[in-house]
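Q&A log
Question type: sequence-to-structure
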Amino acid sequence: MKTTIKLTLAAFSFMLTAPAFAQQFSSSYFMEGSLYRHELNPAFEAPQNYFSFPLLGNVNMSVKGNLGVSDVLFNRNGKTVTFLHPDVSPSEALNNINDNNKLIDEFRLPVIAIGFSAWNGFNTIGINLRTMGGIHFGKDLFDLTKNLQNQNYNIGDAGINEQAFLEVALGHSHKIDEHWTVGGKLKLLFGGARVNTELEDLQLNMEDPHRWTATAHASAEVNIKGIEFTEKHANYKDDSRNTRIDPATGERYGYNTVDEIKFNSPGLGGFGAALDLGAVYDFKELVPGLKASIGVLDLGFIHWNESHVIENNGDKFEFEGFQNIRVKEGDNNNKTLNDQIEDLGDRIEDLYRLENKGNEGGKTYGIGITLNVGVEYALPVYDKVRFGLLSTTRFQGDYTWNEERLSVNYAPCNWFDMNVNGGIGTLGPCFGWMLNLHPIGFNFFIGMDHTFFKVAKPFVPLRSNADLTIGINFPLTKAPKKSKES
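Response status: OK
Response body:
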């Protein structure tokens, strides 16, 4: 049980720290003055040569998901209470809970970022620390905790996935002709750690008031160099559960269970590579001011050198109540209530008691793919105003999400631009904005993809979609003047 808690806490620690920085700032997609648009589409060129302020060039404090603080907190008589409070009815408590709840994180912390014009195009060099993953769980988990009844609860599946790696990226954007601009980025990936935990087909049947049964299959795959799981025997007060015999000692025991986690000679966990590909087409002859673009990001994988697997055996748990309780000392035929409670705890642990299946060797996994598709239109009579429609889809198994975003962009001069935008997607509605100043020698930008208007103490957004993006960089050249054809 201790190890299960440790793994869960470790995965949640990733979730709590990783959302501090996010990968994609969608509000900048149609901002021609943005220095980091190439992260959304490698065909985009920055307007100036630049280098970033180390660790502060592009910081995004962010959370993303479809379950927020306001969905589980309520106001009763001027006090903030959780959905478990007796004054909150079951129907009210579950009203805002989704059938499939997700919390997503995508972390990118730039260590070095450089952009410069050469070789008939624009080039970028970047070194980034990245993590990505999320957590998912069903609505019945809340129903069980809030509305415990004699019925069958099919809680379904839940899981946590997280991976961390260092990325070294080399990009190039090239204008082929008056219509086409293409770009690509090669990324070398150095794997740090990957953890994937799954709780599958969790069911609790309480229809019979005299007997409860529960089943679940729990597993975890850990890709970390040098990790070691040590085991111990599980012993119960109920001798009938100790069905195995240690050949060395003759002792009867229950299941083996992972007890401790050790790290022996930790180091690089794996190595991989990925590509970003992008293209922009200008319809200037057919429809002046109209452009279309597409960017495919993170087409790649990491080969992890070690794959340590631990899982439970999926046995059914049954509880028929406390019986034959000893009421006085000296009655050896019955057990004390404390002993039976310990047995109950041991049996519940069997639902997720993890046995070490060993190191299954090297395995290869994709890192998730992002698809950006955009269409923009500049007003013929006033090309300082542009409209843009961006569709973003992140393909990552249970953590897949999609968003459609419409923006209005205004660039009154060649060193300042701004926009406002809004959209809808898998994780709910969004409203964003961005301000960007980029004269020669200095660049400062600030904005939000998901603006939050209400916060709880201490300054925690009530909705799960909230972020703030800010950056400081150093342009080395003067921003080009905008032409009417651009």
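Response note: Residues 1-22, 321-328 have pLDDT under 50 and may be disordered.
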